[in-house]
Amino acid sequence: MTYWSHVQSALGADGSTTTGTSVAVSFSAAVGAGHLVCGTVTWDNSASQTLSSVTDNASPSNTYNSVSYNDTVDFGGIALFWLGDINSTTQPTTITAHFSASTSYMRIVLDEFVGALPTANPADKSGIVYVTSSTTGTSPSETTTVAGDLIYGVGWCESGATPTFSAGSGFTATNNSSGTGVTLLVITEYKVQSSAGAVTATIGISPAATSVVGVLAIKPSLFAITSPSQNATETATFSVTVNVDSGFTNVAGYDSTFTTKLCPDATPSGGVATIQCTPPTGTTAGSFTFGIAEFQTSPALQLNQDLVINWQPTTAAPLAFRPTKKYLRR
Q1: What span, in angstroms and rounded, lies between the C-alpha atoms of 312 and 315?
Q2: 183, 218, 253: which is the final residue of a domain?
Q3: DSSP code of 141?
Q4: What is the pLDDT of residue 72?
Q5: Are residues 197 and 233 in the same domain?
């Protein structure tokens, strides 16, 4: 069992008349430490313009992973982009797509999730395809390698038609800008795949129209903090409940005995406060709870700090996970 959660979305302006070498959009709040950002962008590629990079306003700026598709029928470039384990000290709010030359018909869309494998590139599979006129747009079929992947789907229509989009079966829409009055029609959606195997993203299109549909599969974290809840108010001593996914036993060398460290992402003094505790010996899956004394650290935990769990095996090299951002407020 994995523990995915959608945090927030950002839908860029319908920029059909805007020209330039970049397009940006901002979340309403800073991206959480250790979280995943993924999204999609479109642009006019009639003069062979390409996507140069996707960056953010963190300091230093992060560069995002991406995959692009060149639509030669309707002259639109489409890309998927993503970045995992967002840096905790410079959490971004604005994401910018940069192009090789001035272009138009630009639009960018973002989503933030909790639950990804804590690495800069947690992608499992990705693909984008052009779909001829139909009431259903279907991405390429991709075969995932692990259970619990986040399946992120995107759909675009740039042919001049104005159909209404809907999420595919089993998917939940996070952004949907379609129908009459919209030039750059787009939908983003997601679901969690329970077991590894072939998967596609699908979108409903009414009435039938051509589309470009993409799919991005993101590997899950094997851990999740299930208690305390997000934005919980805690006192000097509190308990933390962690679920360890059964898939953890499939990670070679990491299914023996563990110690656990809860580390604030940052402290005002610039140091890193560490709290150590030991879960049950030999724990590899299931749920367990352990207590934390907030003031046993040096420096002590500070108000409103984020906590992440880092797992340190006793018989193997360190393996760090950032399952879920939590605000622990005293």
Answers
A1: 9
A2: 218
A3: P
A4: 80
A5: no
